[in-house]
Every structure is written in structure tokens, then in C-alpha cells.
Fold each of these.
Amino acid sequence: MSASPEVLSLTLDRDLKAVSSVALAVEAYAAAVLGKDGAAEVELALVEALTNAIKHGSSRGRATGQITVNARVDGRALVTEVVDTVPVVPEGLLEKAGTHRLDVNIYDIASLEEGGRGLSIIVLSMDEVTLHTANDRYILSMVKYIEG
Amino acid sequence: MKFSQERRGTVLLLEIGEARLEAINAPELRELLIGRIENGDHQIVLDLKLVNFMDSSALGALIGAIKKMGPLGTLALAGATGPVLQLLKLTRMDKVFPLYASAAAALTKLEE
């Protein structure tokens, strides 16, 4: 694995078409320090976060401007941040996300929800996930520990 | 949505030609699968060997399709590897969908 640049900072329009290029750039950045599997988990969490921000931010009509994505190595961790003018994920729901939200009853497929897994996927793919505010912006911080 | 299809007896094999299945193309995936089911294809193998990324939006499309299929037949997934297989396992979808290592393996089983 080669050394990563100190900080990767990207902006994207509030458009689902813009998600994959940003996710791939962060995945490539992450691969240098986390390896292929860890980078894939970061990519998945980031796609879920950006999709959530674009879909739900736009649907409420409050979201304006571009979304910023920052990635950096901080000690023994890779920190990926999604910065937006509205909450990237609904406030209070991160704490409720987790393995239990992904349970399925294989004898009752008809009751399976088509959506609602994104936050749990983010939480389970990363080692730490927090939502906080700074400078009138909401910041979803997703941390993945660097092993070895 | 890039895909190819082939009929093997009563089984419809759909091979997805997209490298990524995510929110931007999940509605097309859903439409493709629901359309085939509504047209009477009740034994479907979805070959994902060319897909190297999938998110929860695409997963939702697959769930919508298997719910549509219900007791009518089978929607099997084939060729999932790497992050796609990891997502299926993480979300317990490996318990919901019949998974096969390859389309050939799925066809052999469904044609029995």
C-alpha cells in the first residue's frame, strides 16, 4: 500500500449522478491505507450517506448548495466526512441503527421492507459514526480503523 | 440498464451488464425484474458477475422483485462476489435469495 495524500476534499452537486465518481475517488484514497476490503466498506458507507443526503435533503426542500466530502488519515484511522447544510442522516436515527435493523423473517418475505437499511449499513461498515454540527453545517463523520 | 437475457426452458437468465447498481439505476433494475415477472417469467436467474458494487437502493429493487414473485416461483442470484456478496450477507439477503456461485450452477439447480 502506498502513502495517501494528507487530505482529499471533493464537492458534488445534489444529484445522484454525481455520487459514484466521488465514491470511487474516496475508495481509491482509502485503499492506500485500508486495503481493498476496508476501502470497499468505506465506499459503501459513503454511497449510502450521500444518497440519503441527496434524496431526503432534496425531498424536504431545505437543502441548498453542494455537498462536501473530506477524507483524511488521522492517526490510525481513516476519517471520511460528509458536510451538508441539512442533516446528512435524520437526527436521532443513527443510535437506532445496527444489526437488529437488518433482521429478516425468511418465512414472511412479504413483510420485508424495500428500504430503510442505509443507516444500519453505514454503522455496520464503519468503526465509529457521529453526526455533529460546526459552522452552520451538519457533518457526518465516519471512521474506519487502520489495522496492522 | 445494460443487460442480456437468455431463455433455458422455463428459466429466464438475466445478466446485468452494469458495473454498479445503486440509487441512480435501481428503479430501472426494479422495472426490469417486475416487468419480467408480470410477463409470466417465474423462474429467473439474475447473473451479477459483472457487478462490482451494489448499494441498499439496488437491494430494495431486488426485494421488491422477490416480493412480487412471492410463491409464484424463484428469483435466484448468481455470480455475486466481493462487495456485492458482502452486502448480501451483511443485510441477511443470503437467507432470502437463493445464491449460486455462477449462472451455470443456478441453471442446473432450477432446471432439475
Amino acid sequence: MLSFGLTVLLDGVSYGMILFLISVGLTVTMGLMRVVNLAHGAFAMIGGYVAGYLTQRGWDFYLAVLAAAAVTAVIGAAAERTIYRPLYRKGELAQVLLTVGFVFVATGAVSEVFGAFPYPVVLPAYLTRPIDIGFREYPAYRLFQIASGAVIALVLWLLLDNSLYGARLRAAVDNPRMARAVGINVSLLFTGTFIIGCGLAGLGGALGAGILSLEPAYALKYVVLFLVVVIVGGEGSFEGSFVAAMALGIIDTLGKYFVAQAAPYLLYTAVFALLLWRPKGLVPPRSLA
Amino acid sequence: MARLLAIITAATVLSWAGRAPADVAKVGLLADFTGAFATWGPQFQKGVEAYQALHGKTVKGLGDKPHEIQFIYRDTASQGPDKARQLAQELVLHDHVRFLCGLDLSPHAMALADISKEAKVPVVIMNAATSSITRMSPYFVRVSQTVPQDVAPLGPWAVAHGIKRVYTIVSDYAPGYDAEAYFTQTFKAAGGAIVGSARTPQQETNFSAYMERVLEAKPDALYMFQPAGSPSVAFVRAYVERGLKAAGIKLLGGGETQELFLPNFTDDIIGTVTSFHYTETNTRPANLELREQVKKMFGDKAVPDIATLAAWDGTRLIQEAVAALGTDADGLKYIDFIKGKKFDSPRGPVEIDAVERDIIQNVYIRQVEKRDGRLVNIDIDEVKMVKDPWKIDHPQKPD
């Protein structure tokens, strides 16, 4: 029983970590910068395809993942300058329409270049096998996901809560005019933050490709999950995204194990209940609370 | 002067139109070329084009009269049965097609039952695998397969080869239920025991929790029915990652291991046993002809799948029917011609059931192996001339 409990916990946590890795970028763009960015899944998808393309051509997996994050960040930078910037002051409808359009363009492009079939990221052999973790054999890939997710969460937490950059970003989001008045370059800060968010999405897409399979429909299929994580966590709250991603990962895994038939409904029922309980999210950011 | 030119032009165009071969039979092919099911359309088209490139677009009718068979492709865009019905109506009313064909998904085929009867247009179904479809219209004929037909031979084969306890996991949609029902029924009848079963959401890619359940049940084999694409790839990955393969639990399936999809899998898929109506590596002359033609036209990596196969056979039947009956015969005459036809398909010998208008064919038990560095299916057994078992279980009521 203990062994089973630990297994389900590990499964849930590894799934949650992937959700967190990808969603945390959306927390930045949607939560902090208030852009309804439905194209976030497209950035994750691009990262995944870059990693897949490179590993299939013999690149080292870790190098390919970093390259995926970098390429996605560059595309994010270009998109921010050309597509997103004019949107910051427009209403939400304009943001929804334009970012959904971006999703369709990305889906069509990926399907044209890479085909409609699922696209694999080639893992190093030792990550594809189960390894002995004391009480059972467990997939090494999942442990790797948990570890990388934990490291990135820690780095982000240090960066946002304990660095000057984090303090400036929070100030700029809460009150842009005041931030400008004290000499913060808000526009540059937002561009930089948006790029980081896209890079994280690409990283998550590459690392998570073993659970969230790469295919042209990726961008639309999973964006709902990412939005749910951000909303349930509390818009703009990193701690919240982390807690929400873990909770949803574990609830989904438990559901599949015990009530396989009802699992899809269970997840959304849980989201419904969580939002009724805490409409502003599990851990609303301090500035909003 | 300008006026004169216009008249001359008009006269030229008219005389050209008059000279064009009037005797063309148009065939409307409906399939998903875009959207979630976008892989079907192009694979059908390859089958049609390969057949016509090799055997010609024009057939000789009575008295050596040439009839041209012209395919018109329409994209149902993964938008469901309403779209299929609308496009079929346009093809019948506007393009005056003599045949409809294609139809990757069952709901699309079902949506054409009324149109086919009203317009008396024969419909050659090239995939849509729900058993009951051919009973919905006397104008329907199927050259593909049914789910029970592919699945039913696997249960007895498993028992005969030492597999006594099986866990089934199928995708949560109608073909999944059919597969579950027919595997379970035939496996139990042969003396096997089902030790557990699950149905997974249609687009599932996170199978870890289901695999845990299977590990606990310790079956001899795991039977899967998953849609081609990311679900089946993720399924096999979870099966290996969770140590099921290492624990000696065999993997059984069906269409998941088509050669077209095998490059998406890792070598972990080796050893998977599936039952299916087409093994791409078979060396029958008709299959070598198909494979060679497809590679010649669409590149070395192009592989015929069941869509290409059915389109190839379907085109053949349509062209033979037009050759025999001309371009404006009554719809039911064409169907009567196709009924009872026996021929050598690239998959092996086939027969169109004269009563049910459905295909009777061999079902092959294959195993995934690596040959010359490529993953392929290799036949290890076959069951000859299988009729759709659902039709045997559900005898037709006399009118």
C-alpha cells in the first residue's frame, strides 16, 4: 500500500512538474502582464519540435533541450516586438483573436514541415528504462522530469522573490506609471519577461514531450490545461501555479487509477470545486490579495 | 474587330467543348485532408493516383468505347458527418458524380446513406469500419475492413500460443468498444480469461496509472486498441517504461503497428503481435506492384497503408464497373457488378460478399521485427477468408 501510494505520488508529481514548467511562462504573460495569451501552447510546441528535430539528428539531448528553450525565446522576442506589443493596451477580445490566430498559423506550419504524425524527442537510452528506486522499478524519465522541474522552480522562486529584477517586475505590474516614475524601464522589463516566459514554455515542451506528445494539434489540445493551472493557482502567482500544477497532476493520476472511466470529468470537477472554494486561486499573489 | 475576335473565341471554345471526350465518369472522393484526421485524405489519394498511373484513367467499354474515370477530391476537414453530407450533395447535384468513395470515419459514411438511396449513387467505402454500415444502404459497398473482422482471430490465436490471461485497454469510442467486445468474446470462447479491462479517453497520452493496474493483475498479455498517432505511441512507451515488457507481459494489438506508423516508435515495439488484414511486407505480386508504384510516385519513404490499399482496390472496382457498364448505368447495376467479385488484392485474395456487400478477406497475425535496420511487420500466422463476425452474430432480418 505504501509502495502504491508512493508510485501514484511520483506519477502525479512528475505530471504536475511538466504542467508547471509549461504553465509558469503563461503565469508571466497572462498573470503578470495581463495578456490573454492563448498562443502559449504554440510556444511549448515549437520548443518540443526543435528538441525533436535536433535529437533525431544526433544532438545530445540536454543540448537540444537548451537549444529548444533558446529558439523559442528568440521566436518569442520577435513575436513580442511585432505581434504582442500593440496588444497590451487593446481589449481582451483582440488579444484572444490574435493569439488564437497565431495558434492556427503555428499548427499549420508544424503540420506542413513535420507532418501530421506524432514527432518523437529521442531520449538518451538510460532515460527510457525503468530504474530501481528501492521499493520498485520506476521510469528514469519521470524522475528526471521531477528533478528538472524542482530545480527550475527553485531558480524562478529565487529570481522573482529575492532579486532586484523580481522586485522591479512586481512593481511594474502593480503600477506601471509609478514604476516608470522611479526610473524602471517598464517596456524593456516586459519584453525581457515575455521572452523568459516563452523560453520556459519551450523548455517545458521539450522536457515534457514524453507525456504531452508532440503533434500539430498540441497547441490547442493542451492550452486548456495550462490555462487551468494559471487560473486555479491564482493569476500571476508562481507559488500558486506550482501548487495548482501539483494538485491537478496528482488528482488526474489518482482518478485514472481508481475510476478510469470518470477520469476526464474528475479533473474538471476538481477545477470547478477549487475555484468555487477560492475564486482568486489557491495562492493569490500578495499584491492582489 | 473586337467583336469579331470575341465571336471567334467563343466559337473556338464551343467547338473545343464539343470535341472534349463527353464520356467521363466522375467519382467524388470524400476524406479528411486537413484537421485532426488529415493523414487519411492524402493516403487515399496516393492509392487512387498510383492505380490510375499504372492502369490508366481510361477504360475500354463496350465496342472499345473509351470511358475516362475522373476523381474529384473533397476535404471533409475533420468537421464531422454534416460536412460529409453537404459535400456529397454538392458532388451529386453540381458535379454529377457517378460514384462516391473515400470516407475515413464511420459517421461520415453513415451520413451518406440517405443521399445514396435518393440519388441512386453507389458509395465505395474505403475505410469506415463500423460493421453495421453496409446494411444502411443498398448502394454501399466496402473494400476496407471491419473492426470485429480484424480483431476476432486474435483471441483464439493467443490461447493456442499459451496466453491464458489477458488485460484489455481500449480507447473510449465506438471502434474501441467493438474491439473490446470481439476480443473478449473470442478469447473467452477459446478458453482464455480476461483479468481486467479499462477504457481510456480518446486522445489520452498519459497511461502510467493504467499500466500500474495491469502490472498488479500480472496477465500473460495486454491487449490494446488505440487510435493511430500519439495515443498508441504513448501507450507503447508507457508499457515499456513501467516495466511491463520486462515483466514478460506480451503486447497484443491491431492497426497500431502499421508500417506507416512504425517510424514513430522506438525498438521497444519489437515483439508486439497484432492481427490485421494487410501486412505491408507480403511478397504477393499485386503488393509488390502497389509498393513499387507508390515509391516511384511519392518517394522512397512513402509506404502504402490500409487507406492507400483500399483506395487502390476501390479504384479498380470502380474502373472495372465502368468498363463493363459504361458511364450512365443505374446505380444498382454497378453494385450488382461489384457484388461477389473475387480478386487478388495487394493484401491477398479477397471477395466482396454478394449478400452483405462487405469484404471477405484473410486476417494475418503479425509480429513487429527489425529487418535491414527498419521496423516491419512479419506474418507469423493467418486465418483464411474471414467474414465480418458481427454480420454472423446479427443475421439480416428478412424485409
